[in-house]
């Protein structure tokens, strides 16, 4: 393995921000300090540092190849880091083999033993630890009840559905009462409805047991619904750490804004008054520290666009950002309408807006119709132009 020094890397080390959100009184349980990982000349991790609280549920989120699974494998000891240290409950585990680390892990494939019954799968780790038979029997029964599969104890994995197999994999990982639970995209092999159901079950199970949990996922909805905090990764570095609300409402980079949720992105320029010049209009935006005259990307989420009638009788929060528009297209998406809005003030840009069924019905919004769209100041974000 080629060891890499910090000076060789093109990307500076990013330290973790102050801890916010869940478990404010809890102690740091896992401390990851300046982790680098190289595969030949390729740097998969570049100075990653963060701390995870005792009992916290943290999601590593990012696109394929961002380094999230590499970081999880380093924590598990399955693929040792090139540089940096990892401490768990005050113990340095940086170079320990997996068998000497205190964790349970669930993989995407579940990895259940097909020739063993469900109860034998769960008991496997306990038997290897030479626990008394009575203790093993009681623990297996307890976990089967906890995951709601007591009646399936004598069955084999092939006789269970994918969702049931996932719950058994979780029970097996928790059998030896590990201090840390690692989940490597545990729901990606399931269909959409089962995923939604299981993510709530996993979160409730984690809360009941109080086990510190790290889950790797590329599914933003999964991370937003399950995590106490989200670690957004890209190209081997941490872009942002925060609660689901923080990373969604207050993204620190254009990548985070774009990756988590839908966005409108418009090329713009910062004016002398700090507004953004977009197409043929100046818009009031959220506070920023970008110099006047700078080329920027203005971002607003479709869900943040507020519809108004043309008569202007409704309350308006940001009158400077109230724009007369034509409804160019409408797409029905079940719980809302996605509308494409055009205006001379946007130039050639099209504004995508998500309106509730009630708003569309109340305002009579229809394709080819006229309306007003408000782009709230606090939701109009500005980022420096990439490159």
TrEMBL record:
<feature type="region of interest" description="Disordered">
    <location>
        <begin position="1"/>
        <end position="20"/>
    </location>
</feature>
<keyword id="KW-0472">Membrane</keyword>
<dbReference type="InterPro" id="IPR050093">
    <property type="entry name" value="ABC_SmlMolc_Importer"/>
</dbReference>
<keyword id="KW-1003">Cell membrane</keyword>
<dbReference type="InterPro" id="IPR003593">
    <property type="entry name" value="AAA+_ATPase"/>
</dbReference>
<dbReference type="InterPro" id="IPR017666">
    <property type="entry name" value="AminoethylPonate_ABC_PhnT2"/>
</dbReference>
<dbReference type="GO" id="GO:0016887">
    <property type="term" value="F:ATP hydrolysis activity"/>
</dbReference>
<comment type="similarity">
    <text>Belongs to the ABC transporter superfamily.</text>
</comment>
<keyword id="KW-0547">Nucleotide-binding</keyword>
<keyword id="KW-0813">Transport</keyword>
<dbReference type="InterPro" id="IPR003439">
    <property type="entry name" value="ABC_transporter-like_ATP-bd"/>
</dbReference>
<dbReference type="InterPro" id="IPR017871">
    <property type="entry name" value="ABC_transporter-like_CS"/>
</dbReference>
<dbReference type="InterPro" id="IPR027417">
    <property type="entry name" value="P-loop_NTPase"/>
</dbReference>
<keyword id="KW-1278">Translocase</keyword>
<protein>
    <submittedName>
        <fullName>Putative 2-aminoethylphosphonate ABC transporter ATP-binding protein</fullName>
    </submittedName>
</protein>
<dbReference type="GO" id="GO:0015697">
    <property type="term" value="P:quaternary ammonium group transport"/>
</dbReference>
<keyword id="KW-0997">Cell inner membrane</keyword>
<dbReference type="InterPro" id="IPR008995">
    <property type="entry name" value="Mo/tungstate-bd_C_term_dom"/>
</dbReference>
<feature type="domain" description="ABC transporter">
    <location>
        <begin position="30"/>
        <end position="260"/>
    </location>
</feature>
<dbReference type="Pfam" id="PF00005">
    <property type="entry name" value="ABC_tran"/>
</dbReference>
<keyword id="KW-0067">ATP-binding</keyword>
<dbReference type="GO" id="GO:0005524">
    <property type="term" value="F:ATP binding"/>
</dbReference>
């Amino acid at each position: 393995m080629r060891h890499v020094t910090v000076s060789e890397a093109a990307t500076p080390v990013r330290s973790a921000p102050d801890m916010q959100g869940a478990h404010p009184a809890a102690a740091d349980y896992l401390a990851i300090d300046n982790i680098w990982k190289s595969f030949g000349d390729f740097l998969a991790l570049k100075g990653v540092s963060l701390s995870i609280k005792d009992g916290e549920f943290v999601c590593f989120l990012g696109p394929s190849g961002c380094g999230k699974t590499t970081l999880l494998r380093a924590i598990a000891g399955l693929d040792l880091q090139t540089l940096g240290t990892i401490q768990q409950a005050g113990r340095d585990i940086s170079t320990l083999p997996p068998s000497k680390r205190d964790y349970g892990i669930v993989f995407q494939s579940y990895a259940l033993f097909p020739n063993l019954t469900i109860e034998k799968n769960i008991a496997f780790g306990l038997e290897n630890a030479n626990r008394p038979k009575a203790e093993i029997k009681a623990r297996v029964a307890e976990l089967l009840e906890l995951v709601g599969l007591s009646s399936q104890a004598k069955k084999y994995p092939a006789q269970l559905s994918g969702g049931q197999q996932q719950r058994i994999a979780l029970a097996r990982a928790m059998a030896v009462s590990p201090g840390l639970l690692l989940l490597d995209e545990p729901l990606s092999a399931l269909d959409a409805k089962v995923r939604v159901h299981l993510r709530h079950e996993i979160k409730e199970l984690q809360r009941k047991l109080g086990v510190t949990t790290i889950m790797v996922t590329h599914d933003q909805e999964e991370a937003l619904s399950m995590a106490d905090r989200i670690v957004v990764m890209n190209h081997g570095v941490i872009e942002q750490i925060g609660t689901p609300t923080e990373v969604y409402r207050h993204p620190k980079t254009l990548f985070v804004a774009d990756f988590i949720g839908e966005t409108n992105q418009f090329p713009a320029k910062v004016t002398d008054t700090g507004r953004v010049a977009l197409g043929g209009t100046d818009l009031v935006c959220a506070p920023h520290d970008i110099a006047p005259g700078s080329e920027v990307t203005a971002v607003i989420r479709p869900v943040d666009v507020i519809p108004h009638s043309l008569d202007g009788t409704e309350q308006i929060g940001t009158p400077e950002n109230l724009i007369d528009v034509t409804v160019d297209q409408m797409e029905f998406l079940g719980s809302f309408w996605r509308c494409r809005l055009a205006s001379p003030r946007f130039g050639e840009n099209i504004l995508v807006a998500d309106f509730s069924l009630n708003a569309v019905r109340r305002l009579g919004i229809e394709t080819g119709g006229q309306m007003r769209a408000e782009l709230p100041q606090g939701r109009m974000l500005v980022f420096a132009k990439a490159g």
